[in-house]
Amino acid sequence: MALRRALRFDPGLLHLRATAVSMGTVLGTYGWALFVEHAAGLRVDSVVQAVVVASAFGRVQRAFDRTDRLLACAVLPCAAAGGTELSTLVQQHPNAGDAVFVLGVAGAIWIRRFGTRATRAGTLVVLPLIAVLVVPSGIAPTTGHERTAWAAVIALFAVVWGTALTWAAQRTRFVPAPPAAWVVKATPPTRGGLPASTRMALQMAAALTTAFVVGRGVWPDHWAWVVLTAYLVCSGARSRGDVLVKGAWRTAGAAAGTLVASTVSGSFGPRSDTAVVVIFAVLAVATWLRELSYAYWAACVTAVLSLLYDWFGQSPGNLLDTRLAGIAVGAVIGLAASWLVLPIRTAAVARARTAAALAALGELLEADWHDVSAVRRARARFGHRVDQLALATAPLRVLAALPAPRRPEDDALRAMAALQGCAGPLDELTGVLAAAPAEPADDPAVTLRRAHVAAHALAVRRAIGRRPQPPKTPGRATAAGTPSAVPGAAAQAALDALAALDSRLDTLTRLFAPPSTASAPDSTTAATR
Description:
This protein is mostly helical and 529 residues long. It has helices spanning 2-9, 14-40, 44-60, 66-92, 94-110, 116-134, 146-171, 181-184, 196-218, 223-234, 240-263, 273-289, 294-311, 320-340, 346-366, 372-400, 410-421, 423-435, 438-442, 444-464, 489-512, 523-527. The protein starts with a helix and ends with a helix.
């Protein structure tokens, strides 16, 4: 049943094919790290760091374009070198190492405020830092600073090798190309207050600081379990609802993975080649099923860590109670930080992303319809922003399935459904404009209807932002009151698509607009902007 559900979740096997590329990156980097380990006289902790960095990079690189990859060639080797030095600092000076770790992770989140490129650079910085938490305690790292340069070399190999594999996979259409930078460009914030990235950075700093204090105080030999769980619960959380749902899935999955791994503890023995094969197989399953549910991903990754401990000769079965307790405490710390430290409301995130999607719709309506490429760019941007809205409302869909007397999340879900329903009419409209752009663009009836729909979308955006509507100028003709000649086939198709869009906007009007302004505005609003 789980396999059938997974296949339905990935009908075109796009995620499975992307996983194959990611694992190719991991295995190639693993082979290179083994060669470097033997040639340079390093220890196995360098190989573990290489696998962790390559695994995470293989997943995040799916959205990278050429500029991002050039950025990765500079950022990831430097971050890997810094992570190597940090692991030594944590071993020799725990308090200073903990402080640097917290500042590094929080800073990587804070720089997201500077745009998409900065967000991806921050993600690359965090990858080697997380590797510090993965190496089992008691494993002495390679001494000296010579391994720092080798860590940078291995990370650079991971970027180059992963880029080559991804380029070949995209050229052969084995995996789709990532969206262009102009598609994923974030909308600038329009309201005051602390940016979401600053809030998330402070939440992460509070969670990691508390996790370090509790972990080192209660489990001095296994503090990393608490810190890693707190990081996983807080990382990537877009809102309070998001961190609640993901935290629950991640905690349940991590506990399940620990229990399963404890049952096979000792089956392979220290330094077993079979255990290495199983580790990579489970890691591939984790990468594939990550998009299906964080529970699967957390369970598989935790099982991988337990198998890694077993490979080092530290049986996880003997530490089962301690590990489960550390996971539970780390999860509570992560949830508390996200809910108590400058929390981000789920409804606010949904409203902001709904407004961003409507802005992309308005961009298409206001574009020069003679310019087909501009229309297609606006259509692609609208689709991306609706996908981002779906991610923001994903926890609401889970919460909506629970029995509750009130469902405040229903409005956000209906808004998302209305915007997703715009995809069909927009595809039809884009197709009409691509085939015959001049006829709809020059038809008076289409022009008025287009202005009416644009004004309607703007009115909904103002209602979402709780801004008053601008005053209307009397004496302007409305779309419904202006006669026109019988439209041609292309113009009629455009009118039908615009009418379908208008009906979807009516749903959003009822959800967000005050009762006195619930009716759709006419083209007068557009004419007076």
